[in-house]
Write a structure and sequence with these properties.
There is one protein chain. With 438 residues, this protein is an alpha/beta fold. The chain has 16 helices and 13 strands. α4 crosses α7 and α5 crosses α7. S-adenosylmethionine binds next to α12 and β6.
Length: 438
């Protein structure tokens, strides 16, 4: 028995430092790194999440402020101290934590770490900030640091969206609403809304389909009526547009490419006649496990294959599909408000590689589409290279492909397809193109 072993209980702030370091130093996604907070009690976990999301959302602006307060920058082995300083600044600027509490809690967190030598430094930095706050903030805001986005992305958005880029950068720093999709196999949307209202959960109807609801305030899934019996799913309203665009008809063979974790797979099944046959494929076994769990919870059926979509010879049986959805891997620049770590993790060079992979996926899957069939290409990107320009190049390579205009009241038309910008009609940034084969 190891009776001498002590369990070290970390505070919410110390855990937040570890989580943010895992993102900025090890390149982990925030979603993955947040598992470090699992051992905290519910209140501390919520506070820790708030610290992590907020500090990462504003990281480069906070960094521009911190840079003015330091004689020399931190060595990479002291990134934890730098992050602790950023956390302190975040609490003062964005959380309205009383100044003295933000300073003393930051210093106390440092005192409990193995780097107590940095107590004085942190105390000095935060106190200097409080003395010169206005000048320091306005200095940071005189540059692009005000938007807290990497320089390459600001430039790319300016190139793609001109005057609208500022609005996009601001929307990316907002808190997104929680939207849900009512499983129409089990409930009418209005009846489900009434059930939500009975639990004092307020929501509005998504005007673009017959199953979406946007909640006034986020809640845990446990609070959603019959969630575990499959009555509803959490899904942004922009992602809910895919199934209607695909519009699978009775008896059709449907292919869902890049399907995991299965949000759109499930929606296609919920809205379609029961005799469609759906094959959902994804390269990632762990993510495919989540497709299966989601289908089981929602009481739906599909053939789920863990395969590389590019290697069609290994899994395609030769019978063409009448409907195909490619929800391509992308920069996820349309969902930065939900995943602010994208601003720290994504590099300009990633875009070239993603555009290449998307083109390969389109080329490999196109021959599997039946004549007169429909292929919906989707991304949660707002970059032209992954969207409209990608489809323009595809059409040049495939004379038998035709781009069909999407008539809708959401988003805006592009050269090909339709783009929703982040925050527009409360939705995530998303792109859809509709292709047919003649
Ligand atoms: C945008 S996500 C899909 C989201 C999903 N459609 C949904 O609605 O829940 C992109 C997916 O592409 C998958 N992927 C990337 N490269 C792939 C490939 N070569 N073959 C199959 N799937 C791939 C990733 O594993 C990831 O799950």
């Amino acid at each position: 028995m190891n009776s001498n072993k002590k369990t070290i209980v970390l505070s919410a702030r110390q855990t937040a430092v570890n989580i943010i370091c895992a993102v900025v130093q090890q390149g982990k996604s925030l979603t993955e790194a947040l598992s470090l907070a699992d051992s905290l009690d519910l209140r501390d976990r919520a506070f820790c999440r708030e610290l992590c999301y907020g500090t990462i959302r504003w990281y480069s602006r906070l960094d521009a402020i911190l840079g003015q307060l330091l004689k020399k920058s931190f060595k990479s082995k002291d990134t934890d101290i730098k992050v602790l300083a950023l956390l302190g600044l975040y609490q003062i600027i964005y959380l309205n934590t009383p100044d003295h509490a933000a300073v003393s809690e930051t210093v106390n967190t440092c005192a409990k770490s193995r780097k107590s030598w940095a107590k004085g430094l942190l105390n000095g930095v935060l106190r200097s900030f409080l003395r010169e706050r206005e000048a320091l903030e306005s200095n940071a805001d005189s540059s692009d640091a005000q938007y807290a986005h990497p320089e390459w992305l600001v430039k790319q958005l300016q190139q793609d969206w001109g005057d609208r880029s500022t609005e996009i950068l601001q929307a990316n720093n907002e808190h997104p609403p929680m939207s849900i999709r009512v499983n129409l196999q089990q409930n009418e949307r209005e009846a489900y809304l009434a059930e939500l209202n009975e639990q004092s959960i307020e929501a509005t109807l998504n005007p673009y389909n017959n199953c979406g609801l946007t909640l006034e305030k986020p809640v845990s899934v446990e609070q959603l009526p019959n969630f575990w019996q499959g009555a509803s799913s959490v899904q942004d309203c922009a992602a809910q547009l895919a199934a209607d665009l695909l519009d699978a008809q009775a008896g059709q063979r449907v292919l869902d490419v890049c399907a995991a974790p299965g949000g759109k797979t499930a929606h296609i099944l919920e809205r379609s006649p029961s005799d469609i046959t759906l094959t959902a494929i994804d390269i990632d076994e762990r993510r495919n496990q989540r497709v299966m769990e989601n289908l089981e919870r929602l009481q739906l059926n599909a053939e789920v294959l863990t395969v590389d979509a590019l290697e069609t010879k290994e899994w395609f049986d030769g019978s063409a599909f009448q409907r195909i959805l490619i929800d391509a891997p992308c920069s996820a620049t349309g969902v930065i408000r939900r995943h602010p770590d994208i601003k720290l993790l994504r590099k300009a060079s990633d875009i070239t590689k993603l555009v290449e992979l998307q083109a390969q996926l389109l080329d490999a899957i196109w021959p599997l589409l039946d004549n007169n069939g429909v292929l919906i290409y989707a991304t949660c990107s707002i970059l032209a290279a992954e969207n409209s320009q990608q489809i323009t190049s595809f059409l040049k390579r495939h004379p038998d492909a035709k781009s069909v205009k999407i008539d809708a009241s959401w988003g805006q038309t592009c050269d090909h397809g339709r783009q929703i910008l982040p925050g527009e009609q409360q939705m995530d940034g998303f792109y859809y193109a509709c292709l047919t084969k003649s």
